[in-house]
Write a structure and sequence with these properties.
The structure is a homodimer. By secondary structure, chain A is α/β, with parallel strands linked by helices. Helices cover about 40% and strands about 10% of the residues of chain A. The longest helix of chain A has 21 residues.
């Protein structure tokens, strides 16, 4: 499968074959927004971390891994209970292969990474089942700081790729989408192969009951929706994207179903979505337990979604084959940065080439 | 006076007229490293702040001013007791005129600015008269984080311009230079028109006595010299510069005599200095109470120094004319960014053009 001259990039929702060329890039930058929501501490909600106690280290450890190839705040790379690695292993490989610069934005982590990071000066988000997630002033600050940084990035870089690492983030995304009137139930993906939809729905319903908000009740007030049911990552990424497109730049939202929250927020601000696309992995695209395409289509028909096929099913490593079996699937911008590295290389590299490099990175990381 | 086709850029120390062209740029970025040393709280050492109590706000306020055109952590722009404005007014004007992106690095401020900034996770520096300024682990961290960030910047930008805002920074620079065996006494400039050389010398002498270190005693250990007599800005800027040049990029150190510490540190690490220049104002260049050219020459003959003539003496504003009378003179990368904006504009703008824009910015800032 291929899109134009680029192999292993699949176009999921658009008819015009020229759309990928619109996001061609010679000088991209990757921004990974790391954050925390106490919602992730609910047992069964995520496997992003070896156990519930370690979940708070995941996003810091991911960002250390991107810079160093190993972690500093924990001993091993973030890994699932049975040894499946963080998607940061894909991200690091793709960044290195085509020399893409990147910065980490700390948007309210509990554990700070041992790297230079851009601070948005935010607190971690609370458990949304209590109907109070992020101080409204912090929502506004996150968005405004995102805009400031996004404007600076658009001056240097022809494509700003924005990813995230926040365990539990699909549950907070569900809360925000429902409050904004997007029929998102059963459409958000999960790091688990068996998507805990009923648990997520229950948490969101509980939070909405506490806050006395119903489906679509905050359609015109996305900041309030984030404040009640979201996390600090969402307004930070939305602000970054807004800063870039308001400066005439182009944005790739590198992530799965969570990124639909950013699309709906920008749409509610009447922004043109012409210069935004979503880049993800084929494991999100092919997930039977979620529906990224339908979710985004219900918000906007104009945002193209691209997915990369990394041929993980063909890997010699069982930890990587697991991605093709529905574990982890995406995160830390893995899919979007893989697409960006294919675009930046003008198709010189493809999914198979990336897989070989990811396997080498995997061997090094596991040995450490 | 002009250098090649660029008016108002003066070449101070080199014979080859092609040297400025080497630093021509289409896609520069400005990094301003803000920091604090308790040395600045010694009365009479600086006028960077309305009074000794307010000095700790200066660098945070400077960086807010760059983004917003006004400050948030204090009510007015950083200003001297009798109304002379921060050099950030020059920097902001030059950045805006030619749309140069910039990021702030917090390297140990006491007051954090209300902006998104890159955190190097450092403590403010102590008063060097006690012979113990910065924890050695923080010196190393500052340098390493600088290298990490510098490498990323060099991937996107063809010139990385690095400035600083740290009140009292010429005194800490003096301490480091002397410990490294650079005959720097009476050569460092001051924000005051009457350079308090004897006070600075006394503080440094006191600190060296406490630490039992003599002239040149730490020639081979620049990190220890910074740890005893420096501030957190110096290793941060040195690391940034090292990260950029080690990636094949080019650096302009935007500042006055303080930047000589960075040159001596990189030289002691046997780095090639071919891709480094210093950019400053003509008010530093013409300062009778200091000697930038001689200071840098005693370290390396290969680092070109450029100065911009902003024609401040011709300004209609007394607060700006003061720059030409020896007040403030430089800071927040003012000279280097003015030069960069002239270079980026391919000479379309010059010092006179900049002055008119600075005067407009001054009017707006004073009104607020």
């Amino acid at each position: 499968m291929h899109e134009g001259e680029y192999y292993d990039i699949i176009r999921l929702n658009q008819s015009s074959p020229s759309l990928l060329n619109k996001f061609s890039t010679t000088n991209p930058i990757f921004i990974c927004v790391i954050s925390h929501t106490e919602t992730s501490e609910i047992p069964g909600i995520t496997i992003a971390g070896e156990n519930t106690d370690l979940v708070k280290y995941t996003s810091a450890a991911d960002s250390e891994f991107l810079y160093y190839g190993h972690c500093k705040c924990i001993n091993n790379i973030p890994i699932t209970p049975d040894g499946k690695p963080t998607p940061a292993i894909i991200t690091r490989t793709a960044l290195q292969l085509t020399d893409i610069p990147f910065l980490i934005v700390d948007a309210g982590t509990k554990i700070k990474p041992f790297i230079p990071y851009v601070s948005f000066d935010l607190e971690p988000g609370k458990n949304i089942k209590f109907g109070k997630a992020v101080d409204i002033n912090h929502v506004i600050k996150a968005f405004n700081y995102g805009v400031i940084l996004g404007k600076q990035l658009a001056k240097s870089n022809d494509l700003v790729v924005i990813g995230e690492s926040i365990p539990g983030g699909t549950t907070t995304a569900l809360g925000v989408l429902i409050a904004l009137g997007v029929d998102a139930k059963f459409k958000l993906s999960s790091s688990l192969p068996i998507n805990p939809h009923s648990l997520k729905n229950r948490i969101v319903t509980e939070g909405m009951k506490k806050a006395e908000v119903y489906f679509g009740g905050l359609k015109d007030d996305p900041f309030k929706a984030i404040s009640l049911f979201g996390d600090p990552m969402i307004p930070s990424v939305a602000g970054l994207a807004d800063g870039v497109i308001s400066s005439g730049g182009r944005v790739m939202l590198a992530g799965g179903t969570q990124m639909s929250t950013v699309v709906v927020i920008l749409k509610s601000f009447q922004r043109s979505l012409d210069n935004i696309c979503i880049g993800t992995t084929s494991y999100i695209a092919g997930d039977q337990s979620s529906d990224l395409v339908d979710l985004v289509k219900s918000i906007s028909k104009n945002v193209p979604i691209f997915a990369v096929d990394l041929h993980m099913n063909e890997s010699s490593k069982s930890g990587l084959r697991a991605f093709a079996k529905g574990f982890v699937k995406e995160g830390v911008g893995a899919g979007g940065i893989s697409i960006t590295s294919i675009l930046k290389s003008k198709g010189r590299i493809n999914g198979t080439f990336l897989l070989k490099a990811i396997e080498r990175e995997y061997d090094i990381a596991i040995e450490k």
